[in-house]
Amino acid sequence: MQTRVLTGITTTGTPHLGNYVGAIRPAIAASRRPEVDAFFFMADYHALIKSDDPARIERSRLEIAATWLAAGLDPNKVTFYLQSDIPEIPELTWLLTCVTAKGLLNRAHAYKAAVDKNVEAGEDADAGVTAGLYMYPVLMAADILAFNAQQVPVGRDQIQHIEMARDIAQRFNHIYGRDFFVLPEVVIEEQVATLPGLDGRKMSKSYDNTIPLFAGGAKQLRETILRIVTDSRTPGEPKDPDSSALFTLFRAFASEAESAAFRRALEEGIGWGEAKQVLYERLEADIAPMRERYESLIARPADIEGILREGARKARAIAGPKIAELRDAIGLRSMASAAAPATDTARRQAAKAARPPRFASFRDSDGSFRFRLFSSEGDELLLSKSFKDPKEAGAVQKRLKTLGGAAATLHSLPRSLVLELDSDPVATTPDYADDRERDEALAYLRAALDLLAEQEKVE
Description:
The chain is an alpha/beta fold. 51% of the residues lie in helices and 12% in strands.
């Protein structure tokens, strides 16, 4: 059983060494665990709250996407996409806005901090505060709830936003009488690595003390390391590794044996200049191969965009049925469906099928390709078998969409149904509670397949 874990990446600024060690490297390592269904998105809508410089936003999206890919993020094993490529997110933001209490947003830390700053300066409480800043927690909730993410790794300053997402989801579920949303759990990495910057304080853009990860190449990396502040102890004098920024940086990349050797060298009096050269060489050993991949990627922005667009396609296969389900729940459903009288359960289900069902393709953990058929309410109707070739899976979908129920043979099993094409089992339904529910599902499934065929003819 996989756990869906969602990580947002703000697209402002250029990544530095602290970003890599504290966030990028551990997140990529976690995404490789077989029990994790990892979603990574470039939070470019969020970036608009922090920056109104189009060139900076554009460049940052490219640089940060290239950085994560160069650092080892595998787009075939995760869902990696741009927030702005998912139109379901702003739509969900509005649906959630309509159930979110203003008082909840009034308590958001970022908004309160802006208000407090204005009040202290004798300004109007909301001076310079945009609706984007105020509504940030709702957009973040939509990012999470659109995919029913179960876990969201964040820093401690973001815990409140996850709690607000839970509150908003619970309110929606309560108003509309069903658990439409999974309530996300916050994940705090207690041992998140923080690196010292050039002046010994925590490495941060706000302190202007960062060491670039890729920017400027090897020459810039070496020159920046040479600017790290050290004490006045001369060559031959013992140095204290535990109070040295050089040792902390070295240890973040080195093995235990390498760290032990560097510790001894400092304690035995290695000069600071020589120690900085040792640090540079150790960092460059890890960074150089990533930098080479980064420079190759950054030179081919169309390739990066293709990767992100494919990630968006995978993401929308989940978000689309979710939004369709929510639209139906809140009354934004097809008007035609309201006119059809329902005389029994099967006819009611068939009437629901008047709203187009949807196919959603995905890639399994073993590399094979499968698809699901969802009702417009978001219920899973079919799960296909595994296909080695995505074209083969696509051909089966195309056939079902073209020929409808006439192309398929449906066999009843004790708890479920099997769909066959030319005597070849290609998909199964979920298990049903009893024979009556299974038989009703059979009628609904045939109606859904026929509707797909009708829709295909119109298109």
